[in-house]
Task: inverse folding
């Protein structure tokens, strides 16, 4: 099956700093989503981005499908950005998401 | 919007009892829902795919007789953990697929199950 690798596994930032989170995948994908899991466990949809670039406030994402990677950019980080960021992909005809192991982000005041 | 709810959010039960978890899509219809399990500090593991009006499809290694799934309507899927044991303690999360031309999934807030 497809492999989804996220890096770095852990990231510590000072409030106000910028960061880039990476997701590599081993095969072509039909769907790629970025999620933020908050400390209470809720997964929040950040981007649906199988290709191209999208922006939402301080967050933006770029997926280069031909090179099999996606990047999530966080600018001017805030303490509320802390949590785990997951990349997940769908390949083939089914709708099953395959998740990466996640990136744990801690933003310190 | 695309809101998915789960109930209960937290449950503690005795070993040997059964526990039912509900997953509802509140503002859209979902022909397909998914059930995941997440252990502490780990990623989500897909347990099964639930299709409205048909039998669920279980992932390899997931016991279908232990984790009963029913998807009786376009807005409700239930997961019943039968004869629960302490090793079933985990965080269970559902998602619902919103068909808008692409298959984006939206997640419920999760249910933390503790089996004593």
Result:
């Amino acid at each position: 099956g497809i492999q989804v690798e996220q890096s770095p596994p852990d990231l510590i930032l000072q409030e106000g700093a910028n960061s880039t989170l990476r997701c590599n995948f081993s095969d072509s994908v039909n769907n790629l989503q970025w999620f933020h899991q908050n400390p209470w466990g809720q997964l929040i949809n950040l981007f649906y981005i199988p290709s191209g670039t999208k922006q939402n406030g301080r967050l933006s994402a770029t997926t280069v499908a031909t090179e099999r990677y996606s990047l999530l950019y966080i600018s001017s980080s805030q303490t509320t950005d802390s949590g785990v960021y997951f990349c997940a992909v769908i390949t083939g005809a089914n709708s099953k998401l395959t998740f990466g192991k996640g990136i744990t982000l801690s933003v310190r005041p | 919007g695309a809101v998915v709810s789960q109930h209960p959010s937290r449950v503690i039960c005795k070993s040997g009892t059964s526990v039912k978890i509900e997953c509802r899509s509140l503002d859209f219809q979902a022909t397909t829902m998914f059930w995941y399990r997440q252990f502490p500090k780990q990623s989500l593991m897909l347990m099964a795919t639930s299709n409205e009006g048909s039998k669920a499809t279980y992932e390899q290694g997931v016991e279908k007789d232990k984790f009963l799934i029913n998807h009786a309507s376009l807005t409700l899927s239930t997961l019943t953990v039968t004869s629960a044991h302490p090793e079933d303690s985990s965080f269970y999360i559902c998602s619902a697929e919103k068909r808008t031309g692409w298959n984006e999934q939206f997640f419920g807030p999760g249910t933390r199950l503790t089996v004593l």
In short: Chain B has a mean pLDDT of 93.
